[in-house]
Amino acid sequence: MRATLLLRFVASAGLVLAAATAHADDGWALRDEILARIVPPSFPDRDFRVTDFGAHGNGRHDNFPAFRDAIAACHAAGGGRVVVPRGWYLLNGPIHLASHVNLHIEAGATVTFAPEPEHYLPLVLTRWEGTMLYGHSPRVYARGATDIAITGEGTIDGNGRATLAYMKDKPRGGNGTPRRMGAEGVPMEERRFETERWLRPSMIQFMECQNILVDGVTLRDSTFWVLHPVLSRNITVRGLHIESWNSNNDGIDPDSCTDVLIEHCEFRTGDDAIAIKSGRDQDGWRVGRPSENIVIRHNLMGSRHAGVCIGSEMSGGVRNVFIEDCRMESVSSALYFKANLDRGGVVEHVRARRIHVDKVRSGLVWFETDYHGWRGGDFPPTFRDYVLEDLHCVEATGYGIQIEGDRTSPIRDVVVRRATIESAREPWLLRHAENIRFEEVSIGGELAPTLPTPST
């Protein structure tokens, strides 16, 4: 029902039904090849109800053992559904999914988690802001699993605000520590963040998994990024409602992932709605896995920062990203591509069409190559081969379009076609950019030149 309403809402903005003349060299045919490969997993017709394993949905009982045992029994039987019926289920510990298990949360069911970080030990392998390390377990976690899912119309509540309040005065790992470890090649076994120093974990993380489905559930109140697949492939995400307003609460972060579909989701988040990543700096180069073959369509985004972002942790590269038929409300930027001179990496072959935005603060389209640098590196990122078309923005309170490359590595080969920005404080800013074309671009009622003159 939610997905149907969202599709109607997007269609009412004239996005789904908009007719646009395709150009033979636009590269959209690759999207169809990607979609043909993305197949959600299927599961045996067997149910394992957590209440049969001792769970109580009264909001007080610790249901960690019951969920653990139900998942183990489902996995041992060859797979099926672990069903969470109506009720409020507290867990003093994480949910670790296993292969062939579908965690099905029924309507009226809420799964919430204790705030104390000691419940999320022992440490697990994770990636934190682009660096591989051992940290506290995410609320829901899987590693090396095949055919896994989270489905249903219920809710997963990360209880993030309570965790952040609890840990306010506790020692933290610090943003620079993982970054330094990755840059200096500290051995993995020494990258451990335990009780004496902690890093906020993602709420849901799939590490080195394949054949993943997340469908229909509500996700709210995460400590950090909400849904974070890492080094995984064949991922279907659809019909989610994500509402999480804490700091760094990106909605979905595909991170060095291949063949990903994100559709019919609604985002209300404290950071970017969708942020595509592939590792940070030297550690990203060491792992060497791009994010590639990603389709994003029919989503509604209302976030404090960008609608769709690529970066800033993109050192492993990003390619073949297709964004279409999305509606964005008040966001910093609709399409935001960011990196810095520490990153290196190549982001290429990005396509977007039929995007409607109510209001942006930093540009309908924004390329930024000096985003929060750390060590003053000399590894300029490469952005090339973008076609962005049939875009509509009501108001830009800053620049309408910002494209800022590095003088040693300009932004290259960007086409913005059939774009309307009804009002903007400034039309555009272009710096260190080559082969930028505006085709039928109107900003503030005036038609932009086909080849705008770059700023200096």
Subunit organisation of the chains: single chain
Give the fraction of residues assigned to helices: 10-25%
In DSSP terms (H or I, runs of 4 or more residues), the helix count works out at: 6
Shape annotation? globular
Low-confidence blocks of residues: 1-22
- CA radius of gyration is 22 Å
Q: Find the structural class using helix and strand composition.
A: mainly beta
Q: Which topology does CATH recognise?
A: Pectate Lyase C-like
Number of domains: 1
By DSSP, the count of extended strands is 32
Q: Tell me, what is the CATH class?
A: Mainly Beta
> What distance lies between the first and last C-alpha atoms, to the nearest angstrom?
51 Å
Query: Largest beta sheet, briefly?
Result: 26 strands, mixed
Content of β-strand:
35-45%
CATH homologous superfamily heading: Single-stranded right-handed beta-helix, Pectin lyase-like
Overall mean confidence score, pLDDT: 92
